[in-house]
Amino acid sequence: MKALQEKIRKDGIVLSDEVLKVDAFLNHQVDPVLMKQIGETFAGLFKQDGVTKILTLESSGISPALMTALELNVPMVFARKRKPFTQDADVYEASVHSFTKQTNHIISVSRAFLNQADRVLIVDDFLANGQAAEGLIDIIDQAGAELCGIGIVIEKAFQPGGKRLRDRGIRVESLASIRSLENGTVTFQEEAHAK
Amino acid sequence: MKALQEKIRKDGIVLSDEVLKVDAFLNHQVDPVLMKQIGETFAGLFKQDGVTKILTLESSGISPALMTALELNVPMVFARKRKPFTQDADVYEASVHSFTKQTNHIISVSRAFLNQADRVLIVDDFLANGQAAEGLIDIIDQAGAELCGIGIVIEKAFQPGGKRLRDRGIRVESLASIRSLENGTVTFQEEAHAK
C-alpha cells in the first residue's frame, strides 16, 4: 500500500535493526485518514470471505481494526491484555509471549462476542514473531469460529511470524512488508525484489 | 444522542446502582457504525473551535476518538497507561486514580505529539469521577496547549466528575447522560427532566 509505505519512510523512526517506531501515525498518535485507507484496503482484500467479525488486540490494533469493521459493516472485538493471575470463567483466554518485553501476558475475549457461527478476520498493527496472532487464533479455535485470514499493517518480514502462519495455510495480507531495517534504512520487500 | 440511548437500553447491562456494562458495543465489542455517528456528533458540536488534536486514553476511548478525529480531519493521540515505577523523560505524565479498581496508574503522552500550538478536544468513553479527564487536562496544561472541551460518550451524571469539570468552566458534552441506574434500570437525564 503506497500511502502507508510513504508514511513509514517519512515518519517512521528506525531505532535498531529490529525496531521500527511508528508512534507518529499508528501506535500513539494516529492518522485517521490513513487508518480509513487501511480499513478500505483490508475490506477490499477480504470482501469475498463472508467475514462476520474483526478481531484485534488492545491498544494499537484497535484503530485499523475499527476502520476495517466499518467498511465491512461488522462488529470489531478487541482482546484484552491482563495479568496472568486473575481469572474469569466467561472468557476465552490465551497466553502470549512478548519477545521485546520478555514477558508473558494473558489475552482474553468474552465468550459473549465470539462463537462457532463467526467468520473472523484478525487485524493487527504489527507482525514480527507472530505471538499475538497465534494467541488470537487460539481464541478463535476455542470459540469454534472460523479464521478467514489475517490483515497486518506492517510486517517485519525478516522475523519468523509471517512465514510460520503462512506455512499453516493461513492467508496473511500485509500492507507494508519490511525486508530489512539495516543501516537505519527501511527496505520494503517489493524493493528488494526489484533489485 | 438517540441512537446511543437506544443502544444502551438494548445492549447495556446494569450490574449495580453504579456500574453499567457496555461491553457489547463500546468497551470490548465495538459497533463501528455507532462509533462513526458518535464521531460525527462530536465533530458537529466542536467544529467551530479550531480543534487541532483529539486526545483520549487507551483502550476504550480510542474508537470514539478516532472517528471524531476522522470527521475533524486532525490527528488522534491516545495517552498510554503504565505502571508508576517506569520513567521516560520524553513524555508528559499524570497520575490517575481509579475508584473502581482502587489503584493509581500513570498516563503519559509523548512530548512529540502535543505542544503549545495545539487546541485539544478530549474524547472518552465514560465520565464518572472524572479522574481520567483530570489527568488528560493536566497533560494538556504541561504541554501549554489549549483545551477546547471534552466529549464524553456516556456520563454517569450521578457521580461528581461532570459537575466538577463544568464548575471549572470547561465545556463538557455528553452524548448520553445517565441520571440513575437504580432498580436495574437506566434513567437518562432528559427523562428525569420530563417527569
UniProtKB/TrEMBL annotation, chains A, B:
<keyword id="KW-0808">Transferase</keyword>
<dbReference type="InterPro" id="IPR000836">
    <property type="entry name" value="PRTase_dom"/>
</dbReference>
<feature type="domain" description="Phosphoribosyltransferase">
    <location>
        <begin position="37"/>
        <end position="157"/>
    </location>
</feature>
<comment type="pathway">
    <text>Purine metabolism; XMP biosynthesis via salvage pathway; XMP from xanthine: step 1/1.</text>
</comment>
<dbReference type="InterPro" id="IPR029057">
    <property type="entry name" value="PRTase-like"/>
</dbReference>
<dbReference type="GO" id="GO:0005737">
    <property type="term" value="C:cytoplasm"/>
</dbReference>
<comment type="subunit">
    <text>Homodimer.</text>
</comment>
<keyword id="KW-0660">Purine salvage</keyword>
<feature type="binding site">
    <location>
        <position position="27"/>
    </location>
    <ligand>
        <name>xanthine</name>
    </ligand>
</feature>
<comment type="similarity">
    <text>Belongs to the purine/pyrimidine phosphoribosyltransferase family. Xpt subfamily.</text>
</comment>
<dbReference type="InterPro" id="IPR050118">
    <property type="entry name" value="Pur/Pyrimidine_PRTase"/>
</dbReference>
<dbReference type="GO" id="GO:0000310">
    <property type="term" value="F:xanthine phosphoribosyltransferase activity"/>
</dbReference>
<feature type="binding site">
    <location>
        <begin position="128"/>
        <end position="132"/>
    </location>
    <ligand>
        <name>5-phospho-alpha-D-ribose 1-diphosphate</name>
    </ligand>
</feature>
<dbReference type="GO" id="GO:0032265">
    <property type="term" value="P:XMP salvage"/>
</dbReference>
<feature type="binding site">
    <location>
        <position position="20"/>
    </location>
    <ligand>
        <name>xanthine</name>
    </ligand>
</feature>
<dbReference type="InterPro" id="IPR010079">
    <property type="entry name" value="Xanthine_PRibTrfase"/>
</dbReference>
<dbReference type="GO" id="GO:0006166">
    <property type="term" value="P:purine ribonucleoside salvage"/>
</dbReference>
<dbReference type="Pfam" id="PF00156">
    <property type="entry name" value="Pribosyltran"/>
</dbReference>
<feature type="binding site">
    <location>
        <position position="156"/>
    </location>
    <ligand>
        <name>xanthine</name>
    </ligand>
</feature>
<keyword id="KW-0963">Cytoplasm</keyword>
<comment type="function">
    <text>Converts the preformed base xanthine, a product of nucleic acid breakdown, to xanthosine 5'-monophosphate (XMP), so it can be reused for RNA or DNA synthesis.</text>
</comment>
<dbReference type="GO" id="GO:0046110">
    <property type="term" value="P:xanthine metabolic process"/>
</dbReference>
<protein>
    <recommendedName>
        <fullName>Xanthine phosphoribosyltransferase</fullName>
        <ecNumber>2.4.2.22</ecNumber>
    </recommendedName>
</protein>
<keyword id="KW-0328">Glycosyltransferase</keyword>
